[in-house]
Write a structure and sequence with these properties.
The complex is a heterotrimer of chains A (159), B (604) and C (252).
Chain A lengths: L1 H11 L9 H12 L4 H11 L3 H10 L11 E6 L2 H5 L2 H12 L12 E6 L11 E3 L2 E3 L4 H16 L3
Chain B lengths: L4 E5 L2 H5 L2 H14 L7 E5 L11 E4 L3 E3 L7 H11 L8 E3 L4 E3 L6 H4 L17 H6 L4 H9 L2 H11 L11 H10 L6 E6 L8 H8 L1 H15 L3 E6 L4 H16 L15 E6 L9 H8 L23 E5 H13 L1 H6 L8 E8 L5 E6 L4 H8 L9 E6 L5 E4 L9 H6 L8 E6 L4 H15 L5 H19 L4 H17 L3 H5 L2 H9 L1 H10 L12 E4 L9 H5 L5 E2 L7 E2 L9 H5 L5 E4 L3 H4 L2
Parallel strand pairs in B: 1-2, 7-8, 7-10, 8-9, 11-15
Antiparallel strand pairs in B: 1-3, 3-4, 5-6, 11-12, 13-14, 13-15, 16-19, 17-18
Helix pairs in contact in B: 6-10, 6-13, 7-8, 7-10, 9-10, 9-11, 10-13, 17-18, 18-19, 19-21
Chain C lengths: L1 E4 L2 E4 L6 H7 L23 E6 L2 E6 L9 E4 L3 H17 L4 H9 L22 H9 L5 E3 L6 E3 L14 H5 L7 E4 L2 E4 L2 E7 L6 E4 H11 L8 H20 L3
């Protein structure tokens, strides 16, 4: 885990040691590792002179941050109102069946994490699913299968 | 011929449909094309009509193409650009007039609109500051810095009657006025870009499509209240908005609109972006400020307002994105001009995001006071498949449901509050008869229970308890006395919660109970969900007299529960049926009926 | 500054909250998350009262509401009573087995609909946040409120034994519902999943604090502390007091 520590320190030192940068630092660490490693909490605490318990509070409060490793691809299904009334539940059920995980979980092979999110602001395309940063609009059950297969194939082909 | 422009919409909606490929294809294609004048190609922000995207507009010809694909680019260049021919297939089909329309401006979706906050979006490249300057960009700032005193600026905003576009509609000018009176420095200017109401995306669109107007509005406020520093709190999920905003800030610094001694006026102001952490509650101003300070986004009691003690306990003006976008035009055109638009106590326009079961979904900017009917039917083109309009939900989770009897209500802050809903940020979610109002109320309680920060008892435990009650009702375990408990808890949560999020949380339940009580009673007493949404309370059957025997339902049924000979009435085997509702959706003759769902009646 | 509470006039001090004024004058406003010397938090909402300003009546939480001249307060209107009952009901649903909350419910005649009561819930914490405040006041900040919404709870980071925790037990002491488990056996105190070796009182030999807590106080004060428990310390002080009294006034 020593490499992690070096990386964490590099990220932290992009910021001045001011409390207001806590969230930004945590976001950057999340981006780098796909989660917040335990040691990061204490390193940030030392650097910012903020109690570790406060950093931990932040890491558990904000949805953008996760203390558990996430999958290689993060699938977000929008369950905003517009998507909800246009059938986002169908997509969620399909993903649950297809990947055999519940929302909030990661597949055993570490390939996919499924998250339900509240409104991505793409309501005109409802129901919407986002894989990493790519938006898929007007989704149906069949399209979910298509998209997942696409990503699976890409991984198999070593992309 | 005047210089031509090709505007390719690269808002989030169109990008999702690969509009960036269209943009790059145009660039490639035109590089190799031999024309006298090579048109300028621009990737613009959102045009609003996302449903029909990607959108390509050709100026000055005023030709608008919808649902364009990258493979259409060659044809557009060879026919439209080189020969001026119109490609009929890519034109917009207006569902109201049943005609194909060449210029989007003639489409009923756009014709009723009046763009102030969205004035530049779709017309300019948001990353190019020159585009903004060409359309009077930063002229308001120049006017303010060299021709107006801070007091005059505030007076102008006050006179315009502008009310905050983010929620409760507090008068913007009076907020600035109060803040300007405190002699406690530094003061801060904050932009709330943590748009979280499900169904609303106007702030996203403005930040992505015209970031400069937000910046200009904030600098003007800084000058008016004597603040030198501003923060833009932008939602975690809005990556493109953050990118475009950062580019705009960098450009503004380069051009001397931000930083020290702006345009030689002696006034300093700078801006910084703060990325949100993914918490709905941070749209609440005190939680947002806590988040900027590096804390958990818990709201505080606002008995002392943030104009006096806000960010780091210093006087702070916080407005939302759309409000900021209105400032430069107000300064340039004057309060009088703004006041003429809209109604007496609600001047100007409001951007609505029209979504749900409506034909034309997208962003719409209309004068305050436009009726809900005009919005849904004239602009929105009516309900998908011409089903009946049941309700419109406005104001996000803090708002309420408006039933059909109020279709002629004119939309403004006061009217919406009067009927138990609110403007909120302007999301309008249209619902038809296949939306269950009890389930919708349950959905909002679930949303809010996940998003409650958990600080105060009433919001944290109260919403969760209401959710439990509604869960039971949608599962068929409801009792009549549950309604009383829901009403009583609603009152307590409304009165006793700490912040606006909690105080308004019961609204979806209260308004559905007020306008759709019968639907609740059907769930509780008859154990039937008339919309066919609550699966425990739904069964499907085929009316043999109406069934035309087309077998569409049987073919689509995922579990083969439907049988019948062609051209003869079909039957649903209830023991196999999983109540997915596919048959109901696909039946062309309306023969599939929704019945009650508890097991007893089911096997009857 | 004149403030009227339930038709009786009180003199308010500048900067005071309504709760501070009420407590100073022994006016009872029910609350769970307020403690003298701690700033108000506005968490439990039990202290909601009606405040009248001019013609407007609004409902405010006393523990964070700054008083001002001419304020009129009603702590016991029908509306407030109904609200209070609902808030206690919500707490009872969350902690159906907690003795303190059960007593409170009885006192305010709150009965939860049986079908919503789940007695298998073994929760005692009502998230008043006093423990976190106490820990912060100690200067340790070993615990905090984590997660959000209904998942909110108090814990050390990752629920691990925290290097910041000194085992002083201030958190357990301020907890109104006895939700923090602190056990002591054979000179070892266990709290927040961490074991602490205890220190004996040099007078009565009772295990009275932890080594870490004593070190912490010593490092704060910069000198060595006598190992004396609270009971014995009080005794010494009262002895000293008697002594000086005797010196001044002779035999009492």
């Amino acid at each position: 885990m020593t490499i992690d520590t070096i990386d964490i320190n590099t990220i932290i030192h992009n910021y001045r040691p001011e409390k207001r940068f806590t969230l930004a630092i945590l976001q950057d660490i999340q981006n780098k590792f796909n989660f917040i490693p335990k040691e990061a909490i204490f390193i940030i605490s030392d650097y910012l002179k903020v109690p570790a318990s406060d950093i931990y509070s932040m890491a558990t409060f904000y949805k953008a941050l996760s203390l558990k490793p996430k999958g290689r691809h993060i699938i977000k299904v929008c369950n905003g109102t517009a998507c909800h009334i246009r059938g986002s539940n169908t997509l969620i059920n399909e993903l649950t069946d297809l990947l055999n995980i519940k929302p909030g979980e990661t597949t055993a092979d570490g390939l996919f994490s499924v998250e339900i999110v509240n409104c991505l602001g793409a309501c005109a395309l409802a129901p919407v699913m986002v894989v990493d940063d790519k938006y898929f609009g007007a989704m149906t059950k069949d399209k979910v299968i298509e998209v997942i297969n696409e990503y699976k194939e890409a991984v198999e082909n070593g992309k | 011929m005047a210089s031509r422009k090709i505007l390719v919409c690269c808002g989030t909606g169109c990008l999702a449909n690969n509009s960036f490929d269209i943009y790059t294809r145009f660039l490639e294609k035109l590089k190799d094309t031999n024309t006298e004048v090579i048109p300028e190609i621009k990737a613009t922000g959102c045009n609003g009509l996302c449903e029909k995207g990607p959108v390509v507009k050709i100026l000055p010809d005023e030709i608008s193409y919808f649902k364009v694909k990258a493979k259409d680019v060659d044809e557009i260049v060879s026919k439209t650009i080189l020969k001026g021919e119109i490609i009929d297939r890519l034109l917009y089909f207006d569902t109201n007039s049943k005609k194909k329309i060449v210029s989007h401006k003639d489409a009923s979706f756009y014709k009723h609109q009046h763009k102030i906050a969205l004035r530049n979006i779709g017309e300019i490249d948001p990353k190019n500051i020159e585009d903004y300057k060409e359309r009077n960009g930063f002229e308001a700032l120049r006017k303010v810095l060299f021709e107006m005193t801070p007091d005059e600026v505030i007076t102008e905003v006050e006179k315009s009657g502008l009310r905050g576009r983010g929620g409760a509609g507090f008068p913007t000018g009076s907020k600035w006025r109060t803040c300007s009176k405190y002699d406690n420095y530094p003061k801060y200017v904050v932009c709330n870009g943590d748009e979280g109401d499900p169904g609303a995306f106007m702030d996203r669109s403005i930040m992505e499509g015209d970031p400069n107007t937000v910046i200009e509005g904030m600098i003007i406020c800084g000058y008016a209240i004597n603040s030198n520093r501003g923060f833009l709190y932008i939602r975690d999920e809005y990556q493109l908005a953050r990118e475009n905003m950062q580019t705009a800030i960098n450009n503004a610094r380069k051009h001397g609109f931000l930083g020290k001694n702006i345009l030689g006026s002696g006034f300093d102001f700078d801006l910084e972006i703060v990325r949100g952490g993914g918490a709905f509650v941070c749209g609440e101003s005190s939680a947002l400020m806590a988040s900027i300070e590096g804390n958990v986004g818990e709201p505080r009691a606002k008995y002392i307002r943030s104009v006096e003690k806000g960010l780091w306990d210093k006087p702070t003006v916080l407005n939302n994105v759309e409000t900021w976008a209105n400032i430069p035009p107000i300064i340039l055109n004057g309060a009088q001009w703004f006041k003429q638009i809209g109604t007496e106590k609600n001047s100007g326009t409001k951007v609505f995001s029209l979504v749900g079961k409506v034909k034309n979904t997208g962003l719409v900017e209309i004068p305050m006071g436009t009726t809900l009917r005009e919005l849904v039917f004239d602009i929105g083109g009516g309900i998908i498949k011409d089903r009946p309009f049941k309700a419109a939900q406005t104001g996000g989770p803090s708002g309420g449901c408006i039933p059909a009897e109020y279709l002629d209500i004119s939309l403004d802050f006061d009217n919406l509050s009067r009927i138990g809903s609110m403007m909120g940020s302007g999301g309008v979610i249209v619902m038809d008869d296949t939306t269950c109002m009890v389930e919708l109320a349950r959905y909002y309680m679930e949303f809010l229970s996940e998003e409650s920060c958990g600080k105060c008892t009433t919001c944290r435990e109260g919403i969760n308890t209401m959710l439990n009650i509604l869960n039971r009702i949608t599962l068929g375990q409801g009792r009549e006395e549950d309604i009383d408990l829901l009403i009583s808890l609603s009152e307590t949560i409304k009165d006793a919660s700490l912040c606006g999020l909690g105080k308004t949380a019961p609204n979806p339940v209260m308004t559905t109970l007020k306008y759709f009580r019968d639907e609740y009673m059907e769930h509780i007493v008859d154990k039937r969900c008339p919309a066919g949404v609550c699966k425990n309370l739904t069964s499907y059957s085929i009316d043999p007299d109406t069934c035309i025997g087309c077998s569409a339902c049987a073919r689509k049924c995922p579990v083969n529960a439907i049988e019948g000979e062609l051209k003869k009435p079909h039957v649903i085997h209830k023991d196999k049926c999983i109540k997915c509702g596919t048959c109901f959706t696909v039946c062309p003759s309306g023969a599939v009926k929704i019945g009650g769902g508890l097991i007893e009646s089911y096997n009857k | 500054m004149k403030v009227i509470i339930n038709n009786i006039e009180y003199e308010g001090l500048p900067g005071e909250t309504l709760m501070e004024l009420a407590k100073r004058n022994k006016v009872n406003i029910p609350n769970l998350c307020h403690k003298e010397g701690f700033e108000g938090q506005g968490r439990c909402r039990l202290c909601m009262v009606e405040a009248r300003e001019g013609n407007k009546t609004k409902i405010v939480s006393a523990c964070v509401y700054p008083i001002h001249d001419g304020l009129e307060v009603n702590t016991d209107s029908e509306k407030i009573r109904a609200m209070r009952k609902n808030i206690i009901l919500l707490l009872l649903l969350k902690t159906p087995n907690n003795e303190y909350i059960k007593k409170l419910a009885e006192e305010y005649d709150v009965k939860a609909p049986e079908r919503y009561m789940d007695f298998s819930i073994n929760e005692n914490c009502i998230l008043c946040g006093l423990c976190v405040k106490a820990c912060e006041k100690m200067g340790t900040s070993a615990i905090s409120l984590v997660n959000r919404g209904t998942g909110k709870k108090v814990s050390t980071p990752f629920d691990d034994p925290s290097k910041d925790c000194i085992g002083c037990g201030a958190c357990a002491q301020v907890c109104p519902t006895n939700a923090i488990t602190m056990t002591e056996a054979n000179g070892v105190r266990t709290i927040w999943n961490k074991e602490f070796k205890m220190v004996q009182c040099s007078i009565c030999n009772k295990h009275y604090t932890t080594e870490e807590a004593l070190d912490f106080i010593e490092s704060r004060l910069g000198n060595e502390e006598e190992k004396v428990c609270d009971t014995c310390r009080k005794k010494i002080i009262s002895e000293k007091f008697k002594e000086s009294y005797k010196n001044i006034f002779g035999q009492p």
